[in-house]
Amino acid sequence: MFKKILVYFYANSLNKIIIDKDYLILKKNLGQIKISKQEITSITKMGYSNLTMFYGSKGVFGFIGSTMDNAFSWVKDRNKMVKIITKRKNYILSADEPDKMVSDIKKCYNIV
Fold first, then answer.
1. How far apart are CA 72 and CA 51, in angstroms?
2. Most exposed among 4, 33, 69, 111, judged by the fewest C-beta atoms under 10 Å?
3. Judging by DSSP bridges, how do beta strands 32-36 and 23-28 pair with one another?
4. Taking a C-beta distance cutoff of 8 angstroms, is the pair 75, 81 a contact?
């Protein structure tokens, strides 16, 4: 059972973030999530947080799961977090350069 859980969290851990002209693509180790630029209403850099999880992993592959504020989380570094709010879901993820990522997404998708 433990191996299955380990495989699940590895497969769902975030591998890469791609800013495409029409979609923000969250590439996981297995699969991806495409967020249409029209769906994104806000993106902000977050400060350090303990990320209170509703369910998920707080282990080797980072903070993966659902947070208490109803966001999906793919965070490896809690000092470099970004929150993306869409019309349907919220996402919290970490980026190597969160300020640059926020700026690039706002510029590419014309988000104020």
1. 11
2. 4
3. antiparallel
4. yes
Domains of the chain and any CATH numbers: 2-109 (2.30.29)
**CA pair distance 33, 17, nearest whole angstrom:** 10
Question: Which is it for the CA torsion 58, 61, 65, 69, positive or negative?
Answer: positive
Over residues 70-87, the mean pLDDT reads 94
Q: Tens of pLDDT along 11-60?
A: 888 999 999 999 999 999 999 999 999 999 999 999 998 777 666 666 66
User: Using alpha carbons only, what angle is made at residue 58 by residues 30 and 15, rounded to the nearest 5 degrees?
Assistant: 30
**Token pair 């989380």: residue:** 73
* CA atoms of 4 and 103, how far apart (whole Å): 38
